[in-house]
Amino acid sequence: MTATPTRPADAPPSAGPTPAARLATVLRLRELPVTIALIALVTVTYLANPLFLSSQGVKDLLLNSTIVIILAVGQALVIITRNVDLSVGSILGLVAFSTGTLFATVPGIPIVVVLLAGMALGALLGAINGLLVTVAKVPALVITLGTLYIYRGLNNAWAGGTQYFAGDRPDAFGALSVDTVAGFPLITLIALLVVAVVAIYMVGTRPGRDLYAIGSDPDAAKLFGIPVARRVFLAFLTNGVLAGIAGVLYASRFNSVGATTGTGLELDVVAAAVVGGVAIFGGSGTVVGAALGAILLTTITSALTALRVDKFWQQAIVGVLILAAIIIDRIAAVRTAKKLRLSEARDV
Amino acid sequence: MSNSLSTKTPERPTPALDTSTVLRAEATGRTGAARILLGRDAIMIYALLAFILYACLFIPRFASPVTIGFLGLDVIPVLLIAMPMTLIIITGEIDLSVASIVGLTSATMGVLWDAGMPIETVLVVSLLVGIVAGAFNGFLVAVVGLPSLAVTIGTLALFRGLALVVIGDNAVADFPPALTTFFTSKLGATGIPTIMIGVVIVAVVFGVLLHLTPFGRGLYALGFSKEAATFVGVKVARAKFWLYVGSGTVSALAGIYWTLRYSSARSDNASGLELTVIAAVLLGGVSIFGGKGSIPGVIAGVLLIGTINFALRLGRISDVILIIVTGTLLIISVVAPSIFSAVSRWRHNRRIRRSLPQASASGPPTPPHPA
After folding, report:
1. What gap in Å lies between CA A9 and CA B275, rounded to an integer?
2. A312/B146 Cβ within 8 A
3. What are phi and psi of B264, to 5 degrees?
4. Is the ipTM of this complex over 0.85?
5. What number of other Cβ atoms are within 10 A of residue A110's Cβ?
6. Which residues pair with B186 in a beta bridge?
7. Contacts of B338 in chain A (CB under 8 A)
8. How much is the pLDDT for B30?
9. Cross-chain Cβ contact B147/A326 below 8 Å
10. Could you say which residues from 137 to 196 on chain B have a Cβ atom under 8 Å away from some Cβ of chain A?
11. Transmembrane stretches, by residue range (chain A) (predicted)?
12. Nearest CB to A323: which of B94, B158, B169?
């Protein structure tokens, strides 16, 4: 047994990573495939039909993706902890309907109050999910499948045949998804703010990093002293709050809210996160990637229309994209594992 | 203290002997008839019987052959798909694409029949479509080794999308009347749908496969630990692949049934059914972690949801309550076992503490702390 020699020659120069190393880092980014796909899609569509990127076209693209962006960011948080929340579509529906109800029954209620009420309702529903998952220690897939039904049932029971239309809401609320600042609709700006805040939280704070540790290996995270249950609860709570925001914005963006609002949205949202590079088994991926995935999936619909592709192909293409994302992820994982094996073999 | 828990050798003359007897008494589960009569499946079946009894007594018009007929026709798709789904979840995987395969099969049937093909060819080709779809899932999960949750979310979109590509937003309804009436016909005066015979055959095949063959026992091993299953000689990839093929095949059968029962081929047939099936399977006692569950339990679970559904509708209670009931049942069915096991663990610990007061009170002597 020889003492391990220190190897100053191998240490990276203190000036920082070389351009090649920096390039390698960029190439390894999990968001790269979805970014390239998005750029390629937009470029091809624009070349074929320049109207696609007119100011109205861009605005429509942004408006269509806003709701899914917010939901995908929340879902990414949950998936990173190796859980999943299938109840988001139902939470969104309940919050959207309660938004409509608030405007209709309390005339002159400030929009901020409605937004806060929506967030509070979302937080409550998310907290129920989180409590069931962490206290009962039952897989999130099952619990949130159950709450998907329960929340939807509550929404049905509450709404019945009632629907609230845009006319029932104050003009200023509807204007949120019409007025633009520098080309961005206001609700999209809210979504971007959400992405920025959550992204910084995930990168720069201890609880944010903990979520990755929990997703990589829950047992190791526990041994390491991370309060796993509390962090997972926090992820579900945050996801509920974000679904609440999305629900309020949904009421602003779309004409009618009723008993079936948001039905079937959950799988789109999970798909957006997966396409955006969030590994379904937790531990890797970023909320920015999830947001890009949401933009890609919603942009495809508009792009196909602009390209005059048969609209019936759209869902099949979404399916292919999801599968492509998983396969790319798999290839990357295999290559990383190989590289780790090689470098460990060298170090022995 | 900790080593007294792990030791089970009866030769030890120390208080550890005491612990070992307590532990062994605890570890011995129920055997023989008690195991069958008090097991998870049995409880599910009792719940089903109790509910049927209640419904017959207190819900007007429930106890009639008409009930059996409509109830049977309604639960058949879920019952069919739940069979392969049980096996897949027992191995620790999942298949979310089943309802989309139903839709794809239905769309294929519609288009081929519309194009004037003979009905036999239509049925065979539709079944083949389901088999190929299942094999595609199986290839990605078993051979490529991708996570099944993600893969089948992808194929859920893909197969439903292909159904749209095949048939668009058309609907084909003019299937041969002889065939569609056969699919809704009843066995004499019993009210049992004729097609139920086929469903029973599928259930028996999957039940025998799971419970009475080495392949089926291997699936449980696979659900507990993939590595261990590999070491005892279970061909993991091959087992998973054929399970997905089976799931695709049965989903295609359900698609053919759905199309002919409602005599309508549409791309959105059975959309959202995957969650109903999974809810029923989990309610029937299959563990989402894999390694646990049985066909009789699942059949009871499917029938329980179906019966409650039908009874609520007869009682003129809206579907709303049904959705809430389904969700609540699902959550109770998974949370209750964890509560039971927490309670029994607490009682177990308390009993050990009582029988070993000195060990529990003082614990092992603390070594002198080095200053």
Report:
1. 58
2. no
3. -155, 120
4. no
5. 11
6. B193
7. 136-138
8. 61
9. yes
10. 140, 144-147, 149-151, 153-162, 164-165, 168-169
11. 32-49, 61-81, 101-124, 131-151, 182-203, 232-251, 257-280, 312-332
12. B158
**pLDDT, tens only, A307-334:** 888 778 888 888 888 888 888 878 877 8
Which B residues, 245 through 284, put their C-beta within 8 Å of a C-beta on chain A? 271-272, 275, 278-279, 282
- Domain definitions of chain A by residue range: 50-311
Contact state of A142 with B162 under an 8 Å Cβ cutoff? no
Looking at CA atoms only, how far is residue B173 from chain A in angstroms? 20
Tokens of A34: 């979805």
Tell me the CATH number for domain A50-311: 1.10.3470
CA–CA distance, B163 with B146 (Å, rounded to integer): 24
Q: What CATH architecture does domain B35-345 belong to?
A: Orthogonal Bundle (1.10)
- What pairs with residue B265 in β-bridges? B172
Q: Cβ of B161 and A146 within 8 Å? A: no
Nearest to B44 by CA among B299, B312, B270, B342: B299
User: A207-229 pLDDT, tens per residue?
Assistant: 999 999 999 998 999 999 999 99
Q: How far is A327 from chain B (nearest CA, A)?
A: 7
By the 8 A CB rule, do B141 and B244 touch? yes
> In tens digits, what is the pLDDT along chain B, a chain of 371 residues?
344 444 444 444 444 444 444 444 444 556 666 666 777 778 888 989 998 898 888 887 788 888 888 888 889 999 999 999 999 999 999 998 999 999 999 999 999 999 988 999 999 999 999 999 999 999 999 998 888 888 998 898 899 999 999 998 888 888 888 888 888 888 877 778 888 999 999 999 999 999 999 999 999 999 988 888 888 888 999 999 999 999 999 999 999 999 999 889 988 888 878 878 988 898 888 888 888 899 999 999 999 988 888 888 777 776 677 778 878 887 887 787 777 778 888 888 888 888 876 554 444 555 555 54
What distance in Å separates the CA atoms of residue B245 and residue B110, rounded to the nearest whole number?
A: 23
B272 contacts in chain A (CB < 8 Å): 264
**What are the backbone dihedrals phi and psi of residue A149, each rounded to the nearest 5 degrees, phi first?**
-65, -45
Q: Which two tokens stand for residue A279?
A: 């590994």
Q: Distance (Å, rounded) from C-alpha A73 to C-alpha B332?
A: 29
Q: Which residues contact A227 (CB under 8 A, 6 or more apart)?
A: none
- Which DSSP string do the residues of B116-169 spell out, in sequence order? T--HHHHHHHHHHHHHHHHHHHHIIIIIS---HHHHHHHHHHHHHHHHHHHHTT
| pLDDT computed for residue B32 by the predictor | 66
Cβ <8 Å between A267 and B153 = yes
**Which residue has tokens 């959309």?**
B271
CB contacts under 8 A, B 282-321 vs A, are: 282, 288-289, 318-321
Cβ atoms A171, A108 nearer than 8 A: no
Residues 9-68 of A with CB under 8 A from B: none
Which tokens is B107 given? Answer: 């769309």
Segments making up each domain of chain B, as ranges: 35-345
